[in-house]
Amino acid sequence: MPYLSKIASPTLLIDEKICRENLKRMSEKAKKHRMKLIPHFKTGQSKEIGKWARDYGVQEITVSSVKMANYFSGDSWDNIHIAFPFNPLEANALDQLASNSRISVQLVNAEVTEILCNRLKNEVGFFIEIDAGYGRTGVEVSDFGKIEAILRKAKESSTLVFKGFYIHAGHTYYEKDISKIYEETRLALNMLKNKYRTEYPDLVTRLGDTPGCSTMDDFGDIDEMGPGNFVFYDLTQERIGSCQKKDIAVALAAPVVDIKKDKRTILVHAGGVHLAKDVLIESDGSKNFGEIVFLTENGWNIPESRSFVKSISQEHGIIQASDELLEKTKVGDLLGILPVHSCMTADCMKSYLSLDGQWIDHAEGVNS
């Protein structure tokens, strides 16, 4: 049965071929630089997509919460890393999880380290998250006092094991000079490795942002990469230069409910509860909540002329339509919308429909 016949309401489509091509390309890049690829599964949040990743050599994964780690814990991953400054209120849940899965966490202070030392009965690895200029979270790279306080405290426990240093250079999303940011990241991780590897000879260094992992070709001696958004990509990544629109692996199928040709607008059932409210700003200052593609039996085509969702409310989306879109679209049709932020759109929709008509799981939903 064609997938289009299964759609009557907003539905997130996934193109397995594109997703696999993205996984293959990043895997090959990691191998080229002798790095281990440990992708962040906060984007797809899917066991099925995890199976695809295994086909490209992925054996360890990254998640963003204990809850997400639990979702993936039965799939025999070599290690599941929780890439968020650890929440000490979940120490008991972490210990339970570690009783049947290899788990690692991120630490940014000695206080949480002490709590884990006192609570953990099962072994858990940890990375110290480093802030090398992003400013969101992490120990400042020059704050050796805080780094060593964490390490000293961890030594008091036989169950808390130091693995290395982690940097998420998130400012690659909004600063133009990605190469400059990556030079700072390489220098920071190299300095930390040289400083601590005598005492910790097995320590590794890891970075985690998609823009840098997609565009850079010099990672120095960084050991591991953990990008997430690359499995789907999105319009934000396309604007940064991480990908092309043809690399975006998901599109929201949205029913057309009204057309106003005099205003050059199309009303679709696709709002903030479907797309989220991430936005790009056009050159004229207008807002862009997603760009339109034509759905076909085999996926979607990118139109020659550009149309985009200019405004959204909870359920409504209003498209600023090109002549091409107005000419080809009628009420009752389905249009595809490439998301501004695919991670958030996927989290809103909580499942995927493949192009062969199969429902694919998401951690926050159930199979339809």
TrEMBL record:
Alphabetized Gene3D superfamilies for the sequence: Alanine racemase, D-serine dehydratase-like domain
Q: What is its EC number?
A: 5.1.1.1
Q: Where is the D-serine dehydratase-like domain?
A: 249-356
Pfam families named among the record's database cross-references? Ala_racemase_N, D-ser_dehydrat
- Tell me one GO molecular function of this protein: alanine racemase activity
Instruction: Please provide the record's keywords in A-Z order.
Output: Isomerase, Lyase
Family to which the UniProt record says this protein belongs:
Belongs to the DSD1 family.
Q: Which PANTHER family match?
A: D-SERINE DEHYDRATASE, ZGC:162816-RELATED
The name this protein carries in UniProt is Alanine racemase
